Amino acid sequence: MISINSIIIRCVSVPVVICHDGINQLVCYRWGLIPSWSGDPSIAERLINARAETVDKKPSFKDAFKKRRCLIVAESRSLALINGHSTIRLFLRQSGEDISG
Fold it and tell me: pLDDT under 50 in the chain at which residues?
């Protein structure tokens, strides 16, 4: 059974939708990225976010961005707004109880 964690953090299993041979499948993947050029799985703990402006150019992300995409199943999204020394956390959720991706 696949369950949705309340918070997605590095190196936990999360449900994602992938397209394999033209068929969408719901599977669990471990959050993080192991680039094709790295043989060290521990690098996934450091590669968890990419900037939208450079994801197709950075060596760590560009191959995965072009060939290995997935849709992350979630109920909400959190954002951290940092202003000087204070941080405000916002949780964004669509109305109703639908799961979004």
Answer: 1
